[in-house]
Amino acid sequence: MNVFRPISRVVLNVVDQLGGEWVLYRRGRKELRIKAVRGATAETVEGDGVKLLVRRMDWLINRAVLDFGQGPAMPEAGDEVVEQDGTRWELTSPGGNARAWRWSDRERTRYRCFVWEIKADG
Fold first, then answer.
1. Which domain covers residue 103, as residue numbers?
2. pTM for this one?
3. Which one, of 82, 81, 105, lies nearest residue 91 by Cα?
4. Which residues contact 49 (CB under 8 A, 6 or more apart)?
């Protein structure tokens, strides 16, 4: 038994409550009002002898709240996160990976969802 597991859960729940913001999570016509934490993922990209540090925007979402009525669901590419000011983010698979998310914690209680901002034309 990992003695830090209960402490880890408490800390993650505090982060959700204090660092989270209310957003809409959309999948097609289905919509959930949830708390999510804004995050960023940094990675190094190499090409033509140049190394770039790329920061990608992401959202950390508690696995338990992503439920459309049939039990916890996994995020999918094409789902959207909509902020209160109307800014829209689409889940996308970075670098051709199969999933638009990865586990954010060892206990697999949080999804780290990779997103791109959806901009309106005009």
1. 5-118
2. 0.78
3. 81
4. none
Q: In 3D, which of 9, 58, 53, 6 has the Cα closest to residue 37?
A: 58
Per-residue pLDDT at 32 exceeds 70: yes
Overall domain count for the chain: 1
Closest Cα partner for 102 from 14, 8, 39? 39
CA distances from 31 to 24, 37, 55, 73 (A): 6, 18, 28, 13
Q: What is the DSSP letter of 85?
A: T
d(CA 39, CA 23): 14
Q: What is the C-alpha to C-alpha distance for residues 119 and 20, in angstroms, rounded to an integer? A: 23
